[in-house]
Write a structure and sequence with these properties.
With 286 residues, the chain is an alpha+beta fold. It contains ten helices and four strands. Strands 1, 2, 3 and 4 form a four-stranded antiparallel beta sheet that branches.
Length: 286
């Protein structure tokens, strides 16, 4: 009786397993007594590409990662982050973005203020002490990057000296620095030596606040007390907007070298900066 007898066992033939072109083949052969030739059959068997699977897993894991947290203003640079935090600490009467409730007289809209000449002189004297301190700190440069903020055009010490001299010529007695100014000066000196991020927060808020709200205060006082005389304190040599932009660029450049934790620490100092500046500003109404 004729029969078909397998002459070889079914076998898998593999090429290199990691190549995408690899595909195992199933080969079976038979021998018949009626024919002299051997009959063989080959079937391709699908197999998963392990390299492809590996890549798929990596992509899936990457896609599953949480998106990086974005901070308000971060896309425009760190100065915008500082501005955002500072504006939130204003009252609605002071700024449209303000969220703070009015608790102190100096937090009311400037149009409601009733300044006194004696109080204003105290304010100018304490302000000069603070600006003297800031200029001395950047000149000394305990941290090298402080030197970036020398001769920015925003300096106020020399301008204030001229104003106080003018008041003296008008017959006014110039008071000595009071507790708010002395205290803030000491705090700035200490921070500048051991906590540069906190110091930069104060530096930014002092100079930029004076260039905005400070001018409104100056106009109000000039109208009520000085026969509309504009003091040197509210004048800048050159285009103020460009001077401010130059300092913004320097601040952003410095902050690029900070960690996220250092940036957050700087932002957290904003409320303290407002507190000390507010104590000096309050002198106008004393």
């Amino acid at each position: 009786m004729a029969s078909l007898t397998p002459i070889s066992q079914t076998q898998f033939l593999f090429n290199k397993p990691l190549l995408k072109s690899s595909s195992p083949r199933l080969e079976t052969c038979f021998q018949s007594s009626f024919v002299s030739k051997r009959l063989c059959f080959q079937l391709k068997v699908p197999v998963f590409d392990r390299m492809h699977l590996k890549n798929t897993v990596v992509v899936a894991a990457t896609t599953a990662e949480k998106p990086k947290k974005r901070y308000p203003g971060e896309a425009k640079g760190f100065v915008e982050e500082m501005r955002f935090v500072a504006m939130k600490l204003h009252t609605r009467e002071q700024a449209k973005e303000g969220e703070k409730e009015v608790k102190e007289k100096e937090e009311e809209a400037v149009r409601k203020w009733e300044p006194s000449i004696d109080g204003y002189l105290k304010f100018l004297v304490d302000s000069k002490l603070v600006y003297d301190t800031l200029e001395e700190i950047v000149e000394k440069a305990s941290f090298p990057f402080y030197a970036e903020f020398r001769n920015t055009g925003l300096e106020r010490s020399e301008k204030l000296a001229k104003d106080l001299e003018w008041f003296k010529e008008q017959g006014y007695n110039i008071p000595k620095p009071s507790s708010p100014g002395v205290s803030y000066s000491q705090i700035l000196q200490e921070l500048s030596e051991k906590d540069p991020q906190a110091f930069i927060c104060h530096f930014y808020n002092i100079y930029f606040a004076h260039s905005a709200g400070g001018q409104m205060i100056g106009r109000k006082v000039a109208e009520q007390l000085l026969n509309k005389k504009e003091l040197e304190f509210y004048k800048w040599d050159g285009d103020l907007s460009q001077l401010l932009q130059n300092v913004r660029d320097k601040l952003n450049k410095v902050a690029k070298g900070w960690t996220r934790e250092e940036k957050d620490h700087c932002l957290e100092e904003t409320e303290k900066s407002f507190k000390h500046s507010g104590e000096i500003l309050r002198l106008i109404l004393s």
